[in-house]
Amino acid sequence: MSSLVPLDDPADPRLADYVQLREVNLRRLLEAEHGLFIAEGDKVIRRAADAGYEPRSFLLAPRWLESLHEVLAKWPDKPVYVVSEELAEQVTGFHVHRGALASYRRRAARPLTELLRDAPRRIAIFDDIVDHTNVGAGFRAAAAMGVELVLVTPTCADPLYRRSIKVSMGTVFQVPWTRLDTWPGDLELLQDSGYVAAAFALTDDSITLDDLAARHDERLALIFGTEGHGLKPHVLDKADLTVRIPMAGGVDSLNVASSAAVAFYATRP
Alpha-carbon distance 71 to 170, whole Å? Predict the structure, then answer.
């Protein structure tokens, strides 16, 4: 069993990893500086552990010690800070659902060229999606629909931010992903590797999702743009084709995560 450390002071410096989890800018700086991310909830903590991530520490209400025993037993040298749920709320800045958190070490990003060696048939690209909920939901849809690789552009929200991880239900640990170095420059590498770049946008020359599915392309890179404004013109110019999802009932578009889920399902092998 890991070392149990009861704490009752919200200002204890050992709790620094968990301070003000809702402050996005603060967390971005802290997590980048220390190379960490936060997993919230027992299921997500387990999935991070199963994926082989190394914990820095755990922050648990007493009732979770028994159910997470197997996870804690794998890391006997990692501290388990045992706190009341009230203290956890003071430290994190919100009511911690189920009173279970863990701080994990990030891994170095894998290069795109390395990830392409596995020859994934379908790739999802999330471009400039700034809402962490949408990023997490997009990853969950990718995992559920068998998308084999997710790429995020330089301006996309962090898939390992706590909210993204929680919404993804930990599937961000399941689907291989990396952040692109240049965009849309890296699209040329995908096209040279045999991928058809299909950008989802409402343009005059767009084809329907049904038309795309009927093509049965061997390799697809499905590109989704930011909330509201969608993909920028210079990205659309580099894509091989643009795709729209037919709508009914006077609806002009779907939430980006919903659109991705529909597209992933329609293009499944």
Answer: 15
Pair of tokens at residue 77 = 């040298």
Q: Measured between alpha carbons, how far is 39 from 165 in angstroms, rounded to an integer? A: 7
User: What is the C-alpha to C-alpha distance for residues 185 and 49, in angstroms, rounded to an integer?
Assistant: 35
Q: How far is CA 121 from CA 129, 145, 175, 217, 223, in A?
A: 23, 12, 13, 9, 14
Q: Which domains does the chain have, with CATH numbers?
A: 3-105 (3.30.1330.30), 112-266 (3.40.1280.10)
What is the enclosing helix (H) or strand (E) of 106?
Answer: none
Instruction: Report d(CA 240, CA 171) in Å as an integer.
Output: 29
* Tens-digit pLDDT profile for residues 129-139: 999 999 999 99
Q: Which residue type is seen at 188?
A: E
Nearest to 127 by CA among 219, 18, 232, 218: 232
pLDDT for residue 1: 56
Tens digits of residue pLDDT in 197-238:
999 998 989 999 999 999 999 999 999 999 778 899 999 999
d(CA 2, CA 74): 8
Q: How far apart are CA 38 and CA 73, in angstroms?
A: 19
